[in-house]
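[Meeting: bench + compute handoff]

Bench side (C.D.) handed over the final construct sequence. Compute side (W.E.) agreed to return the predicted structure before the next meeting so the bench team could plan truncations. Sequence as handed over:
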Amino acid sequence: MSNGCVYLVGAGPGDPGLMTVRGRDLLRRADAVVYDNLAARRLLDEAPPQAEMIYVGKQASAHTLRQEEINELLVRLGREGRQVVRLKGGDPFVFGRGGEEALALVEAGVRFEIVPGITAGVAAPAYAGIPVTHRGVTSSIALITGHETPDKDESDLDYAALANWPGTLVFYMGVKNLPKIAASLMEHGMDPATPAALVRWGTTARQETVTGTLSDITEVAARAGIKPPSLIVVGHVVALRQSISWFEGRPLFGKRIVVTRARLQASRVARQLEDLGAEVIELPAIRIEPPADTAPLDAAAADVSSCDWVIFTSANGVDAFFDALQRAGLDSRALGGVRICVIGPGTAERLGRFGLKPDAQPQSYKSADISRTLAGIEDLGGKKILCPRADIAPKDLIVDLQSLGADVTDLAAYRTVGETPEPELLDELFAGGGPDWITFTSSSTVTNFVNAVGLDRLRGSDASLASIGPTTSATMRGLGLEVDVEAAAHTIPGLVDAILEAQPPREQ
């Protein structure tokens, strides 16, 4: 047996936050990821950049690979000695055909492990405010496949038993067969007034829930245009949704919001937006890389004790400088006699991770205000100031400081490199009017995103544009874009607040 192993991992029902810690850990060290149509695509970002990504998604009318071919693929990858994550929507063993894949691996002598996932049959009703069990209502649940070949003469399901089931019925993949399911349950004695619900795209920002009774749920679903992927829930627990519904009432629920920050920085804003109900699409317009030559930064870090001030204009600059300090064999104590200025609270927060507080911070978050702030503290004539910044940072700050007599060392601490999203992702994103919001957190995100998307397509979309502050807004307007909202506080929380304030009141 080779050293390869195939991990059959449940990705959960859609919300990437519902994946298990074990599954996420395995993704982070996978050599290959074989994923299906229902696995949250954002989970793929957890895999190493060099991991091979293989899509084998299956939908009702289109199979990328047949199940037998998927089995053969997993066997081959395992025999090659790879660490393979087979990422499956929901739980591998709940209508996920994980058992078939496991048996194929057993027969081939390939080592494997099972990592259970949260199944949609429990999670989607919960996000719709429907507890599948509830004291005093029901103490049992049945998980049932609703996907049966329509041309069969007889159903494999025992509708007589299901109609007399004392608990909740949850049908997977049953939307197309909903008329037959509802009619069969009533024909076998279930009360037509029994509450029923359909939950589409459960646990995601696209979630849609409709409710009715067994007698009218088919008509309700057709009127609402409910399509797969959806679950059918039948039972008296459905009535509890009226009181418990929580997910769909969040202030940004259903809004599709594009985050253009560098991938490593995007998680903070993405998390805040998702907590408010938004569907976040990460399309990084930039990535952060070390400077082509780190020697000047390393030399400046080693000699930082000779400086009077160090000015940080971004969290990236803080990280880059302390990396250089570490390479020089030093730590925060090297700044013991040096005063520090930061441009805003985000940069101050990053500085705090190294046990330091800033000595100065301008009230507004524009670099042009830094020189005025420092000049208000002391005469800058002859003062030695180090500025570790982005390679494309504007020179206004440096010119202002030098005009006040300061001896300024302006260093490229990191490079801002443009990212180009896959054309297919952009086509999908802007189909049908595009996203609801696009957020910009720097001038470079604006410029690179416009270059990738195209100005005409961006202007022609229905997307509202949100800016983190005046400098970013000026870049947007300079390119002919309208700024729909600008953060009052030029921070990530301020940007989120600006979007929230622009939302119309939700209907009760």
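W.E. noted at the follow-up: DSSP finds 19 helices and 22 strands in the chain. C.D. will use this when planning the next construct.
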